[in-house]
Amino acid sequence: MSKKIAILGATGSIGSQTLQVVDMFPADFEVVALAAGSNVQLLAEQVVKYKPRLVAVMDETKLAEFKRAVAGLDVEVVVGSDGLNAVATMAEVNYVVSAVSGRIGLVPTLAAIRAGKDIGLANKETLVAAGALVMEAARAYGVSVLPIDSEHSAIFQCLERERQAVERLILTASGGPFLGYTRAQLQNVTKTAALHHPNWSMGAKITIDSATLMNKGLEVIEAHWLFDMAWDKICVIVHPQSIIHSMVEYADGSILAHLGQPDMRIPIQYALTYPQRRANPLTKLDLVGKTLTFMEPDRETFPALQLAESAGRRGGTMPAVMNAANEAAVELLLQDRITFTAITKVVELVMARHQVINQPDLSQILDSDAWAREEVLHTAATI
Ligand code: NDP
Ligand code: MG
Fold first, then answer.
1. Which residues contact 49 (CB under 8 A, 6 or more apart)?
2. Which atom of ligand 1 is nearest to the CA of 43?
3. Protein fold of 3-148
4. Each residue of 97-112: pLDDT tens digit?
């Protein structure tokens, strides 16, 4: 029986690559619903090719254009946040790929879980903002949350063999485009340089997060929730080649690692076909001639990693605030309104002002998120 899938963020980097994986196994998957933000041209092309029955467009100003592009096709078009939720909870769907960028993915992902859908999770901000709520819901509704993020897919695969006597999870980080830079050098980097990742081609927000190392901080929090692992047992190591995607160290000193080409279609495929491992036509990793190197992350030059880790340990609404502040600050960088190093400065100042609510419910998390975004605007104007 084919899996009936919905993709939230269909027009993005992960969304498009998910559709490429579907193309590799056409008999196994039926794309029944798609959701996107504002790229209605690409979305319309996807509708023509995959014939989903339900499609959500977030940007209402693009609705008329989209409807013209799909006129005559048998597809229901919905709009805005309600539309996104409708795609996430559509009755026919049994598997939702959560791949919008940012905290906006939280509510539909939670709705999909509560509707009993298994989740392929790329949208790490969902777990950063509300990891406790999301994983609790997944347990209560008996759904699987399968990691798409390459580090977490790697750890998931290493842990499959053995979950006992785990000493620590070792998340690998490429180090981003500014690996080896000093603080002084970082002051002058441009947005364009930050948007140029050495190993991966991804959406703008995660690419900036990779340059500040915030991405790795978000991934530490993601790993904590996905694998129910104590903070002290999650560590980060820089591995510039991005060949080892992460590792698990066991009590006897053995380390299991997952290696592969830096190609997101590999972890996307595993999340979609799990528990099966299927042959695919993708380029395989040839290790001959490769050198693998490792080093400590530079936490002083890239304070975002530490900020995220401390937010995770503090818990309550702090990770949601840290995440929202980061999203808002990255947006300001993308609009050329702040510098690269200001991102982490702003996040730190907003976190320092936050009155944490312990064990928050969803509305308290969303309120804290909104508060943090407002604070970023005030703070950014003062630095
Ligand atoms: P992109 O920016 O490439 O794509 C984001 C997608 O979300 C697009 O389809 C976009 O639509 C849609 N979207 C954005 N805002 C909204 C909104 N308000 N409502 C509805 N849809 C919206 O991001 P990526 O694919 O790179 O990343 C997606 C997620 O996956 C992120 O959480 C990221 O951290 C995670 N991830 C990504 C990896 C990668 O290799 N790209 C690797 C590991 C994790 P549109 O473009 O039509 O406006
Ligand atoms: Mg990753």
1. none
2. 47
3. Rossmann fold (3.40.50)
4. 999 999 999 999 999 9
